[in-house]
Amino acid sequence: MDLSQCRFEQVSERRVKVSGSRFIKTEDYWVKLEGVRLAGYRSISIAGVRCPTMIPRIADILEDARAEALRYFASNAFEIGFHVYGRDGVMDRLEPQRAVASHELGLLIDVVAGEQELAHAVAHHISGNLLHYHFPGQFNTAGNLAFPYSPSEIDAGANYRFSIYHVMKLDSPLEVFPIRFEEL
């Protein structure tokens, strides 16, 4: 498959036309290699936000929570992701409708770290910080987040990232896939 001339064209809001890829017959035999690597361990926390004064400030509040976690766990390496459903939970930065029009949001706090314990601790720190976060115009005094699960942090285990995409030329299709027969 030759994808060097591949083109993607938006046809409508929900459809994309893909063209330009070609199959080129060859005498050579190729194998496509794809692989992943361990990126760390994931912990998540799922919450709902319904406060009418918190929703318009959600971007700034999440960035404050990120900065606080980075400061608190400064000597550790980890990644923090926020998926805000009702704003851009599906398309993230590619979402064309940036304004929040919902009366409630779903929040997924996503932490990946080198050890499960650290990922859990960071997710717990962030969810607790957001639960009791104070901001101008705040109505509620009992907590900003509604958690559907207790405990609110869920350890999701090993997290892998796509790390190899390569084609390899072989002399024979069986070269890297040997078959061995044994007579019993």
Give a nutshell description of this structure.
With about 180 residues, this protein is an alpha+beta fold. It has helices spanning about 60-70, 115-130; strands at about 5-10, 15-20, 30-50, 80-85, 105-115, 155-170.
Structure characterization notes:
By secondary structure, the protein is an alpha+beta fold. The protein has a 4-stranded antiparallel beta sheet with strand order 4-5-3-6. The chain has a two-stranded antiparallel ribbon with strand order 1-2. α1 packs across α2. The radius of gyration is 23 Å and the shape is extended. The mean pLDDT is 92.
* CATH architecture field of the largest domain: 2-Layer Sandwich
- CATH fold assignment of the largest domain: Alpha-Beta Plaits
Give me the Rg, rounded.
23 Å
Assign the structural class, choosing from mainly alpha, mainly beta, alpha/beta, alpha+beta, or little secondary structure.
Answer: alpha+beta
Low-confidence stretches: none
Query: CA-to-CA gap between the ends?
Result: 42 Å
Q: How many domains make up the 3D coordinates?
A: 2
Q: Which CATH C-level class of the largest domain is it? A: Alpha Beta
Widest sheet, order of strands: 4-5-3-6
Could you give a short account of the major beta sheet?
Answer: 4 strands, antiparallel
H and E string: EEEHEEHE
Mean pLDDT: 92
Task: Detail the topology: elements first, then pairings.
Blueprint: E1 7-10, E2 16-19, E3 29-49, H1 58-72, E4 78-85, E5 105-113, H2 116-131, E6 153-170
Antiparallel strand pairs: 1-2, 3-5, 3-6, 4-5
